[in-house]
Design goal:
Order of helices and strands of chain A: HHHHHHHHHEEEEEEEH
Largest sheet of chain A: 5 strands, antiparallel
Distance between the termini of chain B: 101 Å
Helix content of chain B: 25-40%
Radius of gyration of chain B: 51 Å
Distance between the termini of chain A: 75 Å
Number of strands of chain A: 7
CATH superfamily of the domain at 190-270 in chain A: SH3 Domains
Shape of chain A: extended
Number of domains of chain B: 5
CATH class of the largest domain in chain B: Mainly Beta
CATH class of the domain at 190-270 in chain A: Mainly Beta
Strand order of the largest sheet of chain A: 6-5-4-1-7
Oligomer: heterodimer
Strand content of chain A: 5-15%
Largest sheet of chain B: 5 strands, antiparallel
Radius of gyration of chain A: 26 Å
């Protein structure tokens, strides 16, 4: 008799637990909005000219869910429209890291730099050629041609005819592979790139507040971080000037991560 | 009682042991020094030319010896006065070297050219000579300097004679303008033989003047002041008045001096010749007394005045000194809207911290941006050049030149404000193609731009925002750091290596035909043995024997390079040993082909053994 009662109770308990388990996430997720909805909301605010509010919405998506090229580009647009050039350039650069072919972001970045007078010095020919592609693009090119080279060599084991063609193709692949590797190596420094996000950045001789200044560096300029000391970073700008900058006056292009509590604070402080 | 005696004996033995060790150490040190150094002698005169009412310092230096007798020559018209001797012992990387210097004051009775002949020096039983020294004595200058002071050496000032350390600052003009930079040289003198450590850098004790922080590493030299050698620390810096009025300026330096502690009693039996009174032993055994002192320069009075307000240009930023201005621009041909770099360099001597960007004239046809500045110091802290780079954008294609820029400074010598103005730079401005195209192609702004933009800081022309968000990611990872990409590269690398080794192997085999043949033989034998094994399990003796026969023919045919089917029993009997098991098997197989023939399992096994053994042993 007891066994029969338990046999009836067990499915009922399981059913209740199943319902609770399914309903719990729905209940907690209900107040939160999906990133897509927030993104659309941000776009609407931008369209209404409410750049500051749109900026907050985009920042919320980044802090909670992650980022993408278009999202960072829209965020950069908001910064550009609210006059924070350094942060705008930083986010355009980040957007281009994720979507190198995004011509809108590239065009906006060039326009912004032109408006700020942040044009680049003429580079030597080799560096100019290397700058056509970024680090990821050179790496991808090298990877693709390494795969081609491997396939051509494997085909040589299977097929005996067409040896001359395979040799030419192999040589071509090897040449492109070497060029792409050299390009990737020359762009390797890109990993240390940071953007000046303060409009009051002075290069200092030593990493101390009382140190004398060796020059001013404009907001939005790209610098390379060489080393750290306390709250200062030793940086080199694109014309070779070196000096110490306070860390909160620059932001690493690759140093963006989801869930960072200081993400919004940092931008706030840079205002 | 016994314990006390033991202690006394132990103390005595320890004392003797210590004395022996001390003697060995000192003797070893001296002997090592003597053994390792070669004795040389040199003489120098500083300066080689001096007025008749002054003098020069003649220094005779003996390296590699700690005692020497100097025999000064007699030169008509010149007199030599001994001014002391000094000994120096150095230990570098465990190697000792010693040198002895004797200083003499050389004075002349009348002007003229003289030559001090070689000075003979006796050291360590050997006679050495210096090179002759030429000198010139000029007429007295009447400069007020004492008759016996060497010109290169600095004369002690009143109150400095009894000092072991003193501080001097260079001559500074008595009047200055507030903000004007005055170069200053600070020299701290410490008598040689006295160890000194600085507790702080020199400071000005007048609040009407400021001095930038001095270098932590001053220039270190040696100077002789009235025949006394001093170690000198020199700082080159600048001061500037911040307050109007009459200031009495001194520079102070706090240092700790270590004086060698002198032994008062000589060892008995030595009298005045006590060798332990020598500097060497004094340094080793005498110890030091330390004393903190504050060394101050003599006060200098400077009258600081405010800059004149009359005729002061409105663009004056406080620059005082003597400056020049050069201006360059790049590029020379632009489209309207393109940026131009204006490089303005202010060079000269003065207070560069007050030098600001030369003024670009207000013009609605130009847009200017904040400049960057970089200062490069010249020979002194107040000398150098400051380079300003400013981005300017021409908005009007009717512009034909970059207007002149101006820089204002105050010249303290002429006591006037000077305005430097650059020349206008020719510029070719083309009409912007982009603007023209945009004006013709786009009738109005995009929908988003039509709306009011109360927060906008005015960046027009941005591309529309993205409407698709794309896939979100958590961090920016470069391609080469992604796992799948590394795996792909590793796979390609492994495959390429495998292909390389495979091709190398093929090439190796191609170049070794004998190896290829052996390999083919091995494969052929393995294949036929497999067939034999299959036939063995079929229980058909005729089939088994036929397979064995065929196997023998194929393998031997390959080995003898003849057609396998042409091989007969006669060939085997001719070419193989009569005792070969292959002949037996082949004969049985031929017999079995024409008669009913049944093999026992033992025979089958035996035949297979023969075939495998003998065929695999073929050369």
């Amino acid at each position: 008799m007891k066994l029969t009662r338990y046999a009836l109770l067990l499915p009922a308990i399981c059913a209740v637990l199943l319902i609770v388990a399914l309903a719990a996430p729905l209940a907690t997720a209900a107040p939160a909005q999906s990133p897509e909805v927030l993104f659309q909301q941000g776009n609407d605010l931008y369209g209404q000219g409410k750049y500051q509010e749109a900026l907050q919405v985009y920042s919320r998506i980044i802090a909670e869910d992650g980022f993408s090229g278009p999202l960072l580009s829209n965020l950069a647009d908001c910064y550009a429209q609210t006059g924070r050039a350094g942060l705008a350039i930083l986010n355009y650069e980040r957007a281009l890291r994720l979507s190198p072919g995004d011509s809108d972001s590239r065009g906006n970045l060039e326009l912004l730099r032109k408006n700020l007078g942040l044009f680049q010095e003429e580079l030597p020919l080799a560096r100019h050629a290397a700058s056509f592609l970024d680090l990821d693009q050179w790496t991808l090119l090298a990877g693709v041609f390494l795969v081609f080279l491997t396939l051509i060599n494997l085909a040589g084991l299977r097929f005996s005819n067409g040896k001359q063609v395979r040799r030419w193709l192999g040589g071509l692949c090897l040449a492109v592979l070497l060029v792409a590797t050299a390009g990737a190596l020359s762009q390797y420094r890109q990993l240390d790139e940071a953007v000046v996000i303060s409009n009051d950045a002075h290069l200092l001789l030593s990493p101390f507040p009382a140190s004398s200044s060796v020059g001013v560096i404009a907001e939005g300029r790209i610098v390379y971080t060489l080393k750290q000391h306390g709250r200062y970073s030793l940086v080199e700008d694109q014309v070779g000037r070196t000096g110490w900058l306070e860390k909160d006056k620059i932001a690493s292009i690759d140093g963006i991560a989801v869930g960072r509590k200081d993400y919004q604070d940092k931008k706030g402080s840079a205002q | 009682m016994m314990d006390r005696g033991f202690r006394q004996r132990t103390r005595r033995v320890a004392g003797r042991l210590f004395a022996v060790l001390l003697f060995l150490a000192v003797a070893g040190t001296v002997v090592t020094g003597w053994c390792r150094s070669e004795t040389t002698v040199s003489a120098s005169l500083s300066p080689a030319q001096f007025p008749v009412d002054a003098g020069a310092a003649l220094t005779v230096t003996v390296n590699g010896s700690r005692s020497a007798d100097v025999h000064l020559p007699s030169v008509p018209g010149l007199s030599f006065q001994g001014r002391g001797k000094s000994t120096r012992i150095e230990m570098i990387n465990g190697s000792f070297s010693s040198s002895l210097s004797m200083t003499y004051l050389v004075q002349a009775e009348r002007p003229g050219k003289y030559t001090i002949p070689p000075i003979s020096v006796s050291a360590d039983g050997s006679a050495l000579t210096t090179r002759p020294i030429a000198l010139e004595v000029t007429q007295g200058g009447g400069s007020g300097q004492g008759p016996a002071a060497p010109p290169a050496a600095t004369r002690l000032r009143a109150g400095e004679a009894d000092k072991v350390a003193f501080l001097r600052i260079s001559e500074i003009k008595g009047a200055s303008w507030v903000g004007e930079v005055l170069p200053i040289r600070i020299k701290a003198y410490f008598r040689q033989g006295i160890r000194a450590s600085l507790n702080a850098l020199p400071v000005i004790n007048d609040d009407g003047f400021v001095m930038p922080q001095l270098d932590q590493k001053p220039i270190q030299t040696e100077e002789t002041v009235n025949g006394i050698p001093y170690s000198v620390l020199t700082w080159d810096s600048s001061i500037s008045a911040v307050k109007e009025g009459r200031h009495s300026l001194t520079v102070e330096l706090e240092a700790t001096l270590l004086f060698p502690r002198q032994r008062r009693n000589s060892f008995p039996g030595f009298g005045d010749q006590d060798p332990f009174q020598d500097d060497f032993f004094q340094n080793f055994f005498g110890g030091f007394d330390s004393k903190t002192v504050k060394v101050a320069s003599k006060p200098i009075t400077i009258e600081a005045r405010q800059l004149p307000t009359a005729n002061q240009p409105p663009d004056f930023s406080g620059a005082i000194g003597r400056f020049s201005l050069s201006v360059k621009s790049k590029p020379a041909q632009v489209e309207a809207g393109d940026p131009i770099t204006l490089t303005m360099t202010v060079s000269g001597n003065g207070n560069f911290d007050r030098v600001e960007t030369p003024k670009f004239p207000e013009d609605p046809r130009w847009k200017t941006y904040p400049p960057s500045a970089e200062f490069k110091q010249g020979d002194s802290p107040s000398q150098g050049s400051k380079k300003f780079e400013q981005a300017i954008v021409v908005k009007d294609d009717g512009v034909t030149e970059i207007p002149p820029v101006s820089f204002v400074y105050f010249n303290p010598e002429t006591e006037k404000y000077v305005t430097l103005t650059s020349a206008a730079i020719p510029l070719a401005v083309h009409h912007s193609k982009q603007e023209a195209a945009a004006a013709s192609a786009v009738p109005g702004p995009p929908a988003a731009a039509v709306k009011a933009e109360p927060e906008s800081h005015g960046i027009a022309g941005l591309a529309p925002i993205h409407l698709q968000m794309g896939s979100l990611q958590k961090k920016i990872t470069p391609l080469f750091a992604r796992g799948w990409f590394d795996l792909l590269l590793a796979l390609c690398a492994v495959l390429l290596l495998a292909v390389f080794f495979w091709k190398a192997r093929l090439r190796y085999l191609r170049n070794n035909p004998e190896l290829c043949r052996k390999k083919a033989m091995h494969e052929l034998l393995a294949k036929n043995m497999a067939l034999i094994d299959e036939a063995a399990v079929s229980n058909d003796s005729r089939h088994y024997l036929a397979t064995c026969r065929k196997a023998i023919q194929e393998v031997l045919g390959r080995h003898w390079r003849i057609e396998p089917s042409a091989i007969t029993l006669a060939d085997l009997q001719t070419r193989l040993q009569p005792s070969s098991g292959l002949i037996t098997v082949f004969a049985a197989a031929e017999q079995g082909a024409y008669a009913d023939f049944t093999l026992s399992p033992a025979q089958i096994h035996e035949y297979a053994e023969h075939i495998h053994k003998e065929l695999s042993e073929l050369p």
